[in-house]
């Protein structure tokens, strides 16, 4: 609810800017044309993910992974790492934070090992693993739309830094929790899905959706179609699951308010000073400078407004990806660095898992610079 209140306040600020002539109505119309399809995608893919989880798809996948690990925590962790990366790449970081977190915490509880390494893996990979495709992060969708890049063109630029970001994140995670990750556990028996028809519909829907998200279609189209298929299936088989909370309205209000408020700041030329800080050029030092500014801004004010404020100063694909490295992979220090982190924490609280924010921030201060610098240098020398 708090993020919805913040979003509502930001919407009022943006509306005031329009009323007093700071923000022209034409600029608002142009902004709406740009972001409405993205918000439709966010709503649709969230509904898809929630209903797939309701069908038991993610739980079955996680239990199969636990069986494959054969009692070795390190193998279970590596499998969770792969699952978190795949979920983030194809279904977005917020989906990973919301749906995978309870799965990995439950897995850790069943295995009688600490949930903290698995929970940290989920939230860090949700952020640092969100570089590869436009659908992986809301900032990526904005960037791809800004430059008119096909998903495969986008991936061609981001592939190497995305891989480096995940590998460095994994190395830091292992280095900070080696004893817990080298433990052994007794896997429990897997449980079948409650409704095999819904399970199959969800599995087939996701299997069809994933390639369509990189097909070149506007991503909101296949996501909306997939959501419609699952809604119809649940309306027939389990109508009680179709509740208003499936729609992430708080996220929509929050994101809308951020978009409008930052556009108002641009119109008032309040962000011009960032041009001096962000610099210019595509050399390694210039890209590190831009990525560093992006990471710092994301941890101060959240990655969405940080991206929007700095986008005008990332005027080519390479600089834009450097900015994305900063605002995506670097937003793991403060709890408010990304919405995914806030959503992740809400799920942990609901499952009675305590996270020390000071320790979280100290670990983030260790990991974020390593990830951002490594991924940015990989971009500089491969783009």
TrEMBL record:
Residue ranges of the TM segments: 31-52, 73-93, 154-176, 197-214, 220-236, 248-267, 320-340, 360-381
Keywords from the named record: Arsenical resistance, Cell membrane, Membrane, Transmembrane, Transmembrane helix, Transport
One Pfam family from the record: CitMHS
Subcellular location as annotated: Cell membrane
Main localization category: membrane
InterPro entries tied to this protein: Arsenical_pump_ArsB, Cit_transptr-like_dom
Keyword Disulfide bond: no
Residue intervals of the Citrate transporter-like domain: 9-313
Signal peptide region: none
Membrane topology designation: Multi-pass membrane protein
PANTHER family recorded: TRANSPORTER ARSB-RELATED (PTHR43302:SF5)
Family statement drawn from the similarity comment of this UniProt entry: Belongs to the ArsB family. Belongs to the CitM (TC 2.A.11) transporter family.
Designated name of the protein: ArsB/NhaD family transporter
Source organism per UniProt: Agromyces allii
Taxonomic lineage from the root: Bacteria, Bacillati, Actinomycetota, Actinomycetes, Micrococcales
């Amino acid at each position: 609810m708090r993020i919805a209140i913040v979003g509502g306040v930001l919407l009022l600020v943006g509306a005031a800017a329009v009323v007093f002539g700071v923000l022209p109505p034409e600029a608002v119309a142009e902004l709406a044309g740009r972001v409405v399809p993205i918000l439709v995608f966010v709503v649709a893919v969230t509904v898809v993910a929630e209903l797939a989880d309701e069908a038991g798809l993610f739980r079955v996948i996680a239990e199969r992974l636990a069986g494959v690990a054969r009692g070795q925590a390190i193998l279970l962790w590596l499998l969770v790492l792969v699952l978190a990366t795949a979920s983030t790449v194809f279904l977005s970081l917020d989906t990973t934070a919301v749906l995978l977190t309870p799965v990995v915490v439950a897995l850790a509880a069943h295995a009688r090992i600490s949930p903290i390494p698995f929970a940290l893996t989920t939230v860090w990979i949700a952020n640092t693993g969100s570089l590869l495709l436009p659908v992986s992060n809301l900032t990526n969708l904005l960037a791809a739309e800004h430059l008119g890049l096909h998903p495969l063109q986008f991936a061609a630029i981001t592939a190497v830094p995305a891989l480096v970001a995940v590998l460095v994140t994994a190395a830091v995670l292992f280095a900070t929790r080696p004893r817990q990750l080298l433990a052994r556990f007794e896997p429990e028996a897997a449980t079948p899905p409650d409704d095999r028809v819904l399970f199959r519909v969800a599995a087939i829907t996701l299997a069809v959706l994933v390639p369509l998200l990189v097909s070149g279609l506007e991503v909101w189209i296949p996501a909306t179609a997939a959501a419609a298929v699952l809604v119809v299936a649940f309306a027939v088989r389990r109508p009680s699951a179709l509740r208003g909370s499936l729609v992430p309205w708080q996220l929509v209000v929050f994101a809308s308010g951020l978009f409008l408020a930052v556009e108002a700041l641009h119109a008032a030329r309040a962000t011009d000073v960032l041009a001096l800080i962000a610099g210019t050029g595509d050399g390694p030092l210039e890209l590190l400078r831009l990525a560093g500014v992006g990471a710092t801004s994301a941890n101060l004010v959240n990655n969405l407004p940080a991206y929007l404020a700095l986008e005008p100063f990332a005027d080519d694909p390479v600089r834009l990806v450097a900015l994305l490295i900063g605002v995506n992979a670097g937003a793991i220090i403060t709890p408010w660095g990304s919405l995914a982190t806030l959503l992740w924490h809400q799920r942990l609280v609901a499952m009675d898992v305590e996270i020390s924010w000071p320790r979280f921030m100290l670990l983030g201060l260790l990991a974020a610079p390593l990830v951002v610098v490594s991924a940015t240098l990989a971009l500089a020398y491969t783009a």
